Amino acid sequence: MDRLVVLGERQLSGSVEIGGAKNAVLPVIAATVLAPGRYRIKRVPDLRDTRTMMKLLSIIGAESTYENGEMEIDTANCRNPEAPYELVKTMRASFYVLGPLLSRFGHARVSLPGGCAWGPRPVDFHVSAMESLGAEISLDGGYVVAKAKRLKGNTISFDVPSVGATGNAVMAAVRAEGETVIKNAAREPEIVCLCEFLNKMGASISGMGTSKLSIEGVKELRSVDFEVIPDRIEAATMLIAGALAGKEITVIRVNPEHLGVVLDMLREAGNSVTVSGDSVTIKRENFTNPVSVRTAVYPGFPTDVQAQWMVLMTQADGTSAITDTIYHDRFTHVGELVRLGAKISLSGNTAKVTGRRKLLGAPVMSTDIRGSASLILAALVAKGRTEISRVYHIDRGYEGIEKKLKNLGAEIWREAE
Ligand code: UD1
Question: 223 CB under 6 A from ligand 1?
Answer without folding.
Answer: no
